[in-house]
Amino acid sequence: MDGVGVRTVLLRASSALAFCALPAAAAAQSMEMPGMTMPMAAHPAPATAAEPHAMAMTGALGPYPMARESSGTSWQPDTSAESGLHVMSGEWMLMAHGDLNLVYDHQAGARGDDKAFVSGMLMGMAQHPLGNGTLQFKAMISPDPLMGPRGYPLLLASGETANGADRLIDRQHPHDLFMALSASASQTIGCNSSVFLYGGLPGEPAFGPPAFMHREAIMDSPEAPITHHWLDSTHISFGVLTAGLVIDKVKIEASRFNAREPDQHRWNIETGPLDSTSVRISWNPARTLALQGSWGRFVDPEQLEPGVGQTRWSASALWADSVAPGWKAAATLAWGRKSAQGHSDDALAVEGSLKHAQWTLFGRGEMTENRELTDVEDGPAYRVGKISAGAIRDFRVADHLSVGLGGLASLNFVPDALAPAYGGSSPTSGMGFVRIKLD
């Protein structure tokens, strides 16, 4: 570990904040890194008793705690859990984290199926000082293509295609091998303010809450939400450019991006025109809370609906905090709307988790208005719902490596018009899984 390089990084990170009045406690904060304890760039908010080392270096997009940053350029609460392996190499700060899920999936009913599959992600990040800001590179890959083109069974899910001709219904599509290849650059322009540019191929535009696998309230579940294509399906967009302004606890950003959902070829990198637009306003009024509202005009998003554009809206609230000594809770409330061809269809998700020692309990409730659950052209929107609950127990096997055993059960709700197709109005489903986690 290069101590000179570490000191240089920290001095540059704190220089942009030097003229701001800060509480004395902030200057004394520190963070543990492998083999050393290093003083941190000062932040106004002190660590809590439950998070003695929660304060990290400033974020890549502005002079605020790194814990605020989630997928793409989205924000989460400053009190969100941070995991991963951090090391210094000269003036570069390097980070890696990820998980691998081995899942057995059982979806009951007439439209259900069984499947064993592998899912997860591996992310690497590199940061370097850039003037009085930060240069960041991020890469994320997934084993999802190994599932095969039809993904895995998931009642009430729909979207994308396995063969370029038929829509996936009651199945969750696999994500592409390359989930993110992005870069960002920021510059501090005043006390607690900054400007930034972000680009990715693929990347995530300024729309919606953080992608579901990054939301603390539900990241321990291997099950994708049925609200995915209302809230955060843009987290893998093959072509994104975003510009943003941070003013203390507020972030305003706009993106131009390729809204076309990934096709059935999951191993490649696709390209397309940056002809879609989104705008997002984020506000963290307290360390424990992250709010966002966003709008987007999506040009030609569906491979099987050429020439049909969509307008989408989203609003969400993410919360995370310690609720008792040794206990950590997180929650999400998110709403999304898709409007196309004179129709507007809504979706709502509520998520929550409770962590204590090596145990995590998690749950989610969802509702969607879905027009894709039948093959009827211009069919009605069916209001369907789902409740899932599960738990995982982690076992530490090495520094920064754990193995977890978990399971979840789900109850699905369909209207009377769909009940015959599903073999009843409330089919059940469940998953058992083993997780290997780098943290």
Task: Give an overview of the whole structure.
The protein is mainly beta and 439 residues long. It has one domain: Beta Barrel (Porin), CATH 2.40.160. 6% of the residues lie in helices and 51% in strands. It has four helices and 21 strands. The protein has helices at 3-15, 24-27, 228-231, 419-422; strands spanning 30-33, 36-39, 85-89, 92-107, 113-130, 133-141, 152-161, 167-172, 178-190, 193-200, 240-247, 250-257, 276-286, 289-298, 310-324, 327-340, 343-356, 359-370, 382-398, 401-413, 428-438. The strands form three sheets. The protein has a 16-stranded antiparallel barrel. The chain has a two-stranded antiparallel sheet with strand order 1-2. A hairpin with a 2-residue loop joins strand 13 (276-286) and strand 14 (289-298). The two termini are 20 Å apart. The model is unreliable at 1-19 and 21-56 (pLDDT under 50).
Label this structure with key terms:
6% helix, two-stranded antiparallel ribbon, 16-stranded antiparallel beta barrel, mainly beta, 21 strands, Porin, 4 helices, 439 residues, globular
Q: Could you report the average pLDDT, rounded to the nearest whole number?
A: 89
CATH superfamily: Porin
Tertiary shape:
globular
Radius of gyration (Å): 22 Å
Parts with pLDDT < 50 across at least 5 consecutive residues: 1-19, 21-56
Strand content: over 45%
CATH topology (fold) name? Porin
CATH class: Mainly Beta
Main beta sheet strand tally, sense and closure:
16 strands, antiparallel, barrel
Name the CATH architecture: Beta Barrel
| Termini separation | 20 Å
Structural class: mainly beta
Work out the count of structural domains. Answer: 1
Proportion of residues in helical segments: under 10%
How many helical elements?
4
